[in-house]
Specification:
single chain; 249 residues; alpha+beta; 2 domains; eight-stranded antiparallel sheet; 6 helices; disordered N terminus; disordered C terminus; binds zinc ion
């Protein structure tokens, strides 16, 4: 893998449209604006420079085919219609302008089943309350399918990747976020997140115990259903704690 990356770095990268030199991690030509890199790795969903045969992130063989879209789906940010693409055997919709990627519910399940259990992934994504500290600059964006404003979710509470989710239709990943989430899962992030969550629930439980008899039901995040607003207050506490840690850096 190191050898592959080394080989690719040694190549001079030039824009296929205008010939201007380009950095190997550039996704668009600084000179003519042509698209230089696209999501093309079926293993890590990294963005790969046009024409490269192997992924510069993980070394996997590049597999990408553009296909016809079933229906017009506007990008939540740019409002351009998303293009359909087959990466390996995974169907994605992508925006040619902002390079964001839309993954429908079934496809995300398929992706995560390969790497970790779906229950752990979506079950632990907790909704972020509007106007939380540090998140004022984010705005809620509409689902490309139903146009309802999506929930903003800190993936697995501690991944530091914030996603937009329509529980009915799918998940929006800004540029390169899908690869970051895969990286997080592969680095054992889900396990870490579970450990933190259990510790936090234990803490909440003992607080409750000293307060009242109220027994907290089984961990609200560890279900196979997409995030719901049951247990919302607890979710807000947990997410708030994660965010405070994040922004105190
Ligand atoms: Zn160019
Ligand atoms: Zn890759
Ligand atoms: Zn876009
Ligand atoms: Zn929707």
């Amino acid at each position: 893998m190191t050898i592959l990356a080394g080989t690719m770095q040694a190549e001079t990268l030039n824009c296929p449209m205008c010939g201007a030199p380009a950095a190997s991690d550039a996704t668009a030509c600084a000179h003519c604006g042509a698209r230089l890199a696209t999501v093309a790795c079926p293993s890590c969903f990294g963005m790969i420079f046009e024409g490269a045969k192997f992924c510069s992130h993980c070394g996997a063989k590049v597999e990408r085919t553009e296909v016809a879209a079933d229906a017009p789906r506007p990008c939540p940010h740019c409002r351009l219609n998303l293009g359909a693409v087959l990466v390996g055997n995974t169907n994605l919709l992508e925006c040619a302008k902002c390079e964001g990627v839309w993954v429908d519910v079934a496809t995300l399940q398929q992706i995560c089943d390969d790497r970790e259990k779906q229950a752990a992934v979506l079950g632990m994504a907790a909704p972020l309350p509007a106007g939380n500290i540090g998140f004022e600059n984010f705005r809620y964006v509409p689902c490309p399918v139903c146009q309802t404003l999506m929930n903003r979710v800190n993936f697995a509470n501690c991944s530091h990747v914030v996603l937009d989710i329509c529980t009915k239709h799918g998940t929006w990943f800004d540029k390169d976020e899908l690869r970051k989430v895969i990286e997080f899962i592969r680095a054992g992030g889900m396990e870490q997140s579970r450990t933190r969550e259990i510790a936090e629930l234990e803490r909440q439980r003992s607080l409750l115990k000293s307060d009242q008899t109220g027994a907290l039901s089984a961990p609200v995040f560890q279900t196979a259903t997409p995030p719901r607003y049951d247990g919302y207050d607890l979710a807000v506490d947990l997410v708030g704690a994660a965010i405070n840690t994040l922004f105190k850096l």
